Amino acid sequence: MQRLRTFLEHHCDNPSLVDVIDGLMVACKDIAYKVQLGSLAGVLGSAEQENVQGECQKKLDVIANDLLKNSLRAMPQVKGLASEEEADPVACNPDGEFLVLFDPLDGSSNIDVNVTVGTIFSVLAARPEDDANHESIYLQTGERQVAAGYVLYGPSTLLVLSTGNGTHVFTFDPRIGEFSLQRESVKIPATTKEFAINMSNQRFWLPEMQNYVADLLRGEEGPLEKRYNMRWIASMVAEIHRIITRGGIFMYPYDSREPAKPGKLRLMYEGNPMSMLIEQAGGKATTAFEDIMQVEPTSIHQRVSVVMGSADEVDTVIRYHKG
Ligand code: AHG
Ligand code: MN
Ligand code: MN
Ligand code: MN
């Protein structure tokens, strides 16, 4: 079984990027260990503090964030970082080539009920003249990502990664402490009968989304002429992994509750990295009106409406939004 570093050295022409991914995995292996221990490591429960998102942080949100931050700051290749759990960007090493943006623990509402969570990361290039204390240098479109990935802390610990040449799946082997290649260049089926959305928000969606889901729920009798099945795990990282593995469509769409926030999910460290992985695997990722990776960022923590997965199903959703 090919180990991660060997695979990267063949697939990635920038040795510094290989080092950054390797360094991220050091922190993620530590997070995986703490997730496995759960209450035995005293990592469950609330941290009794709020993050910049207005969310009550879990202890493991903070622990995972600190592990990643410390690991990245120790890497000369990293110029700066941004995190869901940090109000502002953090400057690391002035000569670093890369910016790393991450969601240290995605799906953290699930951690206390022992349901799969994960870490999501996005890597952008930095310029020598960039000041990593300034938010502006991080505000690059998703198309400019040089790498994206997630580590899934589930029954197995998996790494799903792209450096621009396909999306690849690695399994962590605790016997040797290494990630080994499981599937190279995965391809998402173009069609699906499985959808993922939080139905309790139905009354807040745009009419176009309400119409699509209403037709979808009419099954064979409806215009979409097929019986769908539903999933909702409330960990984006687990939903996207199911889709990368067997197809499907995941939606966290525009929501009228807070018009200033076009959705719940964050563009820079959830929408963009997942879009790269999905599109590198032959799927599609849109806001329903434009490609997610073409959205011009205006702030590090900005929200984005998310529709991603099997290409033909995403095209159907786009068609419903064409008016
Ligand atoms: P995070 O735990 O990093 O804040 O992200 C949670 C996100 C995403 O993982 C998931 O798909 C979504 O929140 C679930 O939202 P609801 O609880 O509203 O269903
Ligand atoms: Mn959160
Ligand atoms: Mn998240
Ligand atoms: Mn998170």
UniProtKB/TrEMBL annotation:
Coiled coil: none annotated. Mg(2+) 2 binds at residues 103, 106, 270. The keyword Magnesium applies. Mg(2+) 1 binds at residues 84, 103, 105. Keywords: Carbohydrate metabolism, Cytoplasm, Hydrolase, Magnesium, Metal-binding. Binds 2 magnesium ions per subunit. Its EC number is 3.1.3.11. InterPro entries: FBPase_C_dom, FBPase_class-1, FBPase_N, FBPtase. Residues 17-183 form the Fructose-1-6-bisphosphatase class I N-terminal domain. Its main location: cytoplasm. Residues 188-321 form the Fructose-1-6-bisphosphatase class 1 C-terminal domain. It comes from the Bacteria. It catalyses: beta-D-fructose 1,6-bisphosphate + H2O = beta-D-fructose 6-phosphate + phosphate. Substrate binds at residues 106-109, 198, 264. Pathway: Carbohydrate biosynthesis. Its cofactor is Mg(2+). Homotetramer. Belongs to the FBPase class 1 family. This is Fructose-1,6-bisphosphatase class 1. It comes from Thalassolituus marinus.
